[in-house]
């Protein structure tokens, strides 16, 4: 696994860690950021607190990250990587016979991340990733949508085009919102709301994916 996939998109890091000792420090900083976001929220997060929790000098934080936003971006990308690693392993172990089953599994894994990954429900991958890099701002939802389009083509033979991209992007954003609603209703995720999220997303995608 490359440093990019381990620690987040390359643009979120000022420099990539070369030695394992530096890589371990970056992992500790991201772990600390995740725990603190879970405990105090993003607004109260500070690079000083991250350095203290990770047991590193504040200079080490700025050696790899420009500010807390770039840390949050790297953490979001780390969770996206983990999400698709888990989803890919699920598909490899039990390949879905139809895209609907694949979408339902994708939502199930997303819910699992909500329940188990520190800070995930606070970030919910909606913050901009790589702001200012292009004319349009890319979000975690956009990254997930692009991966799903690739999966639809690879596993189910649905060729991607602009209309499919738009449809999948709306479906991802809708699914994210409905999962957030499920966890507002119940700290472990309201089961009926999660099932409704699966139904709504699948029904919407069915307009474009046969």
Structural account:
The protein has helices spanning 3-7, 20-40, 47-54, 58-64, 68-93, 99-116, 120-123, 140-156, 162-185, 191-205, and strands at 128-129, 138-139. By secondary structure, the protein is mainly α. The protein folds into 2 domains: 3-69, Tetracycline Repressor, domain 2 (Orthogonal Bundle), CATH 1.10.357.10; 76-205, Tetracycline Repressor, domain 2. The protein has a two-stranded antiparallel ribbon. Strand 1 and strand 2 form a beta hairpin. Helix 5 (68-93) packs across helix 6 (99-116) and helix 6 (99-116) packs antiparallel against helix 10 (191-205). The longest helix is centred in the middle third of the chain and has 26 residues, at 68-93. The chain is globular and about 55 Å long.
Which terms would index this structure?
Tetracycline Repressor, domain 2, disordered N terminus, 10 helices, 2 domains, globular, 210 residues, mainly alpha, single chain, two-stranded antiparallel ribbon
């Amino acid at each position: 696994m490359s440093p990019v996939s381990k620690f987040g998109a390359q643009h979120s890091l000022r420099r990539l860690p070369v030695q394992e000792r530096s890589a371990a420090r970056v992992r500790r900083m991201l772990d600390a950021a995740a725990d603190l976001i879970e405990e105090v929220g993003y607004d109260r997060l500070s690079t000083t607190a991250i350095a203290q929790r990770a047991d590193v000098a504040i200079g080490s934080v700025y050696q790899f990250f420009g500010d807390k936003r770039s840390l949050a971006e790297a953490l979001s990308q780390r969770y996206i990587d983990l999400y698709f690693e888990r989803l890919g392993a699920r598909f490899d172990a039990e390949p879905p016979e139809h895209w609907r089953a694949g979408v339902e599994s994708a939502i199930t894994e997303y819910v699992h991340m909500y329940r188990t990954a520190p800070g995930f429900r606070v970030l919910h991958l909606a913050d901009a990733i790589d702001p200012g890099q292009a004319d349009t701002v890319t979000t975690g939802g956009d990254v997930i949508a692009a991966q799903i389009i690739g999966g639809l083509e690879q596993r189910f033979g649905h060729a991607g085009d602009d209309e499919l991209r738009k449809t999948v992007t709306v479906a991802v954003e809708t699914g994210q919102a409905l999962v957030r609603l499920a966890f507002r209703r119940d700290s472990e995720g309201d089961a009926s709301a999660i099932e409704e999220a699966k139904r709504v997303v699948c029904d919407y995608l069915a307009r474009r994916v046969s």
